[in-house]
Every structure is written in C-alpha cells, then in structure tokens.
Amino acid sequence: MKTNMTERDKKLLVGMLIGVLIVAIGYWGIIPQLKAYNDLESKIETEEQTQKLNKLKISNTSLIQMQADDYEKKLAEVKDEFYPILTSADVDQMLTEMATKRNLYIYELDFKISTIPTERMAYVNSELFIQQDAMISAYKDAVKQAEKAAAAEKKAKEKGTTANAASSKKATSDLMNTIMGAGEGGYQPNTQIYAVPVTITVGGEIGALENFLKDVENMDRTTLLTSYTWGEYRSYEIRDANGNLVSTQVNKTEQPVNTADETGVSRVQVPVDTTVRKTLTINLEIYMIDTSDVASTDEDPDADAAEESEDETKSEDESPESLLEKTSK
Length: 329
Description:
Elements: H1 7-59, H2 61-79, H3 88-101, E1 105-111, H4 127-159, H5 162-179, E2 194-204, H6 206-217, E3 223-239, E4 245-251, E5 270-288, H7 301-317, H8 320-328
Antiparallel strand pairs: 1-2, 2-5, 3-4, 3-5
C-alpha cells in the first residue's frame, strides 16, 4: 500500500510518538516514584526522630521512675489531708463523739453525703474569683470547640477523607490538652473532692461550747467552717393543773405551745423545771476524697522484699493457664 507521506512526515510522526512515550513514562512512571520516594524520606526522618526520642526515654527510665515515685508520694501526702469517703454513719459518729466528749447536748444534726464533686469558688469580689470565672469561661468555650472538632472528625471518617480526619484529630487533641490543664495554669474541673455540708446545734456550758468550736476549727482533716451562731434552747416539763406530766419540749421560744388532750379539750399547762442552755449552731463542710488507689507513703524495704519474693513464688507455682482459669471463675 502506497502512502503520500514524505520522508519528512515520517520523521515528524516518529518524533511525536517518542515525545508521547516520554511524557507518559514521566507522568505515570517517574513522577509517582518521585512522590513515593519523597514520602518515604519523610517517613524515614520521622521514624529516626521517634527512634532518638525513644532512646532518650529509655536512657531516662530510671529518672522517670524516680519522678513517678516522688509524684505518688506527694499525691498520697496531699490526699492524706482529706477525709476518706465517709458514710452517713461515719459522719454521725464522728460529730456525736466530738460533742459528747465536751458533755454537750445535740439538738440538731443535719447533713447530706454528696455524690457530686464540689467546685469551690473564691470570694465573689476578689481578684481570684475573676480569674477563676475567666478560666471556667475559656474552658467551656474550648469544650464546645473540641466537640465541633470531634464532630468534624467523625464526618471526615464517614466520607473517607483521611487527611481532614487526621487534621481534625490533632486539633481535638491540642484543644483538650489546653483546656484540661496540660500547660501550667490550665483550668482543671474537680473530679475527686466531695463536700459534705453539715449543720449541728449543740447546747451546754459556755466554756464547753467554745472548746467544741475550737475542736471543729482544728479537725485533723480538711474542713471549712462557713458560719456559726449563738443562741439559747429551753427544756420544759409540761404538766397540767393537777401536776400530771403531759410532755417534754425543747425549743427556742419563751413559753411552750399548748396542746390538747385526747378528747380535744385544751388543758391549762404550765412549764415546770425549765432549763435554759446556751447553744451553738455551726455550719461546716467536710471534704472527702477517694484514697483507695493511693500508694502508702510509708517505706518498708523488708515488706517490699517479702512482697517481691512472694510474687516470685506465686509466679513459679502458678502457670498462666491456672491463673486464667481462676480469673474466669
């Protein structure tokens, strides 16, 4: 088959084909390989940095362990300043013993065990209160931003846009580190300390009441005396006109309230053997914290050695299968 193509046209066509081949090889072959090479270089650099950091951590393991032990001791010391988690019976017994030790009468004892951590704020007109209020506002705003970032991350995962998801995840992590106090001065909501508000009214000799007030101020664990008031209580024996005992009353009024008999007829009653006692009403808060997970601050090398030897004996006598079986039971 004869064509009208000249030798020049043939050379031009061959040159065009060669150019197309070069572009195709470069676009689909060389460029992806260059990108993969650059990504690999970046990963190698990241891994090398991670390796250096891990080696540094390994070399500082003993120092980190010492810091962790020191932190545990300080944490135990701080938590030791608070009461452990008390029951209603514990609080009742503690305050009752304090009052009876001073030979005082208990007229009122009202308290409620709290199940929500307390948030103590400074005096409303103080500079510290303004700082606390500003930190709490910033915390709430940051939480909202973190929630939005988490929602964006979830949507990105659903759409399969991993790059956006990774960026959103980093933003969420940075925000939570900031608002949860990763840096110094960050606001940290209290999640461990519980306050038990208590109102107690006791009566007796003025000297005993003053000593009781000092006892409350000097309780061995952390408490807050919010207020106290002085007053009087009167104890009456209520008798009718014939001298028969009707009832006994304890109140703050000058005269007892008249009562009716079983038939509904009001009796003439007079107070007999009236006793007036000075009273003291105290409002305080008892602060509790869970100390079950705090290591003991007492150091006993012999006990630690005995515990280690006991653990070694157990590990020799019991196989993993037997331990797993016991756990499942």
